[in-house]
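As a next step, we paired sequence with structure tokens, yielding the entry below.
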Amino acid sequence: RNMAQKTYKVGDFNLSRDVLAEGFGGKIIKAHYVPHNSILAVKMISLVDPEKKAAFDNEARISHVCKLNQNAIPIRKIFRHENHGFISMQLFDTTLDRLIIHKKRLSPKRSVSYFRQICKGISFMHHRNIAHLNIAPHNILVSVGSGRAFVSDFGNSFFLETDQKISDGQFQLGTRGCEGFQAPEVLVPGAFYNPVQADIWSLGVVLLCMISGYFFENDSVAEELSAIEGLPP
């Protein structure tokens, strides 16, 4: 097949039909951005589902607030076309989870380097009253050559647009995040919890995952705590 058969045009983009990644929030595809003659990654989200539309609107708003965050995924353009929302971003080598699986585990030096960058990205958000609430290796994009790590995926994030500091409050936000990386209180139905503290828990699990190569996949509080306590030293 020729290139024309493998892509379709939406606005200034020639979108590939090859899916790089897919999840509840939508699918990530490779795209050619014609004005700059560059290759980008584009998240495509259906706006028919009200929950997905809300996640797209949330991610678009938070991406704008985080545009100066040097440790967040650089967003190029956000737009809508027919029944879909599109978020174009820089294309990276891999995600942190794929890198961990490939390497079995990361060296302490590399783990600390990535972790420091991830923490800076999340700290930027916290200082702007935003909690990520979906910190997990598959939401960390990595440039292996430069050693850079970037936080991505703000669809589940919580933005407190008041004068109250997000770090001081308890909120009923429901169960958010990736199984195995959620703080125990997030898993309790109807619980009020502090989203900044929940992010800090998730950060710790990501660090443990990098160093140990162990992925937490249990969704009950008891199993999650038991898995962490049972890890070999």
Summary: Residues 3-90 form a domain with the Phosphorylase Kinase; domain 1 fold (CATH 3.30.200.20). The mean pLDDT is 89. The chain is about 30% helix and 25% strand. Residues 49 and 83 are 10 Å apart (CA to CA).
